[in-house]
Amino acid sequence: MELVDSIVKSSKDAKQILKEVGLEEHYNKFPNQLSGGEQQRVSIARAIAKDPLLLLCDEPTGALDSKTGVEVLKLLKKQCDANNGENTVIIVTHNSLIAEVADRVIRLKNGKVESNTINENPKNIEEVNW
């Protein structure tokens, strides 16, 4: 995580981001000392620590239990709302429940856009029955 600080000028605090994904006690560990789910959370923390305007996430909750998945989605939502809502988080997933909290849902079928809708009333992450 310290590498992010040396690459990005406006990076977020690495220890704080690890705390938000529940891995603060693993700060000094190498990836091979972490489980698959922990490695996934570290990769999300690394991406968020760079404070990008656009964040592309491929199945960010795929290897996580539902409780941890909800925490990761909260963190991604927080990232999306940063900079006065100017940030964009795109999540690619097979989990249709995530669509309930999204601002826009683009559904693909056989590699083609099947629908592109704006969710006028996205649910709060805690409202979804995971």
Question: Can you walk me through this structure?
Answer:
The chain has helices spanning 2-7, 14-20, 36-49, 66-85, and strands at 54-58, 88-92, 104-109, 112-118. It has one domain (2-127): 3-Layer(aba) Sandwich (Rossmann fold), CATH 3.40.50. The protein is 36% helix and 18% strand. The chain contains four helices and four strands. Helix 2 (14-20) crosses helix 3 (36-49). The strands form two sheets. The protein has a two-stranded parallel ribbon with strand order 1-2. A two-stranded antiparallel sheet has the order 3-4. The radius of gyration is 15 Å and the shape is globular. The protein is α+β, with helices and mostly antiparallel strands.
Q: Which labels suit this protein?
A:
4 helices, Rossmann fold, 18% strand, alpha+beta, 130 residues, two-stranded parallel sheet, globular
Secondary structural class:
alpha+beta
Unreliable spans are: none
Outline:
globular
Strand element count:
4
Kindly report the name of the CATH homologous superfamily: P-loop containing nucleotide triphosphate hydrolases
Number of helices: 4
Which fold does the CATH topology refer to? Rossmann fold
Q: Into which percentage range does the β-strand content fall? A: 15-25%
How much helix is in the residues? 25-40%
**Mean of all residue-level pLDDT scores:** 87
Order of helices and strands: HHHEHEEE
Alpha carbon gyration radius: 15 Å
User: In total, how many domains does the architecture comprise?
Assistant: 1
Largest sheet: 2 strands, parallel
N/C terminus separation: 30 Å
